[in-house]
Amino acid sequence: MVTIDRYCLDRFVTLVPVLDVESHVTYDDLTDMWLILQEVLASFPTLRHVHIGPKLCSLLGQCRVEDGENVPHHVPLQELWQILGLPPEVTLMLCSNSLHTQEAAPPLDIPPNILLVEYGFQVQN
């Protein structure tokens, strides 16, 4: 991966890694996956952007009830850099489609180095 990253850099092309999970993955499975995702990101020495795909974004945006409390809880967006082992100057690109369905959720505090990406899904007949 380092060789591809360097090859692209020499040609003024920016590689943007995309992190996502399979459709069967649940929120509870993510704890076991963070180390693997961090290892993938470490393969990009010139990392400036990371794209988080739709399934992973929807899992991170889900309301959770934790510690037996009845209070919904989100993974705060500000914690994503720490969870992924990224420096704060890396820009995260998040799928915004899952935000449309969170009517009961409190509004998210979106940091300035997050880009929201709207996916256009094609309907198949």
Give start-end ranges of low-pLDDT stretches. none
Order of helices and strands: HEHEHEEHEE
- Count of individual beta strands: 6
Give the strand order, joined by hyphens, for the main sheet.
1-2-5-6
Rounded to an integer in angstroms, the radius of gyration calculated over CA atoms is 16 Å
How would you sum up this structure, described in words?
- With 125 residues, the protein is α/β, with parallel strands linked by helices.
- It has one domain.
- Helix content is 28%, strand content 15%.
- The chain has helices spanning 2-10, 30-42, 54-61, 80-84, and strands spanning 18-19, 49-52, 64-65, 72-73, 91-95, 114-117.
- It has a four-stranded parallel beta sheet with strand order 1-2-5-6. A two-stranded antiparallel sheet has the order 3-4.
- Strand 3 and strand 4 form a beta hairpin.
- The longest helix has 13 residues, at 30-42.
- It starts with a helix and ends in an 8-residue tail after the last strand.
- The model has no long low-confidence stretch (mean pLDDT 80).
List the helices and strands and how they pair.
Elements: H1 2-10, E1 18-19, H2 30-42, E2 49-52, H3 54-61, E3 64-65, E4 72-73, H4 80-84, E5 91-95, E6 114-117
Parallel strand pairs: 1-2, 2-5, 5-6
Antiparallel strand pairs: 3-4
Features:
125 residues; alpha/beta; four-stranded parallel β-sheet; two-stranded antiparallel sheet; globular
Task: Briefly characterize the structure.
This protein is of the alpha/beta class and 125 residues long. The protein is built from 4 helices and 6 strands.
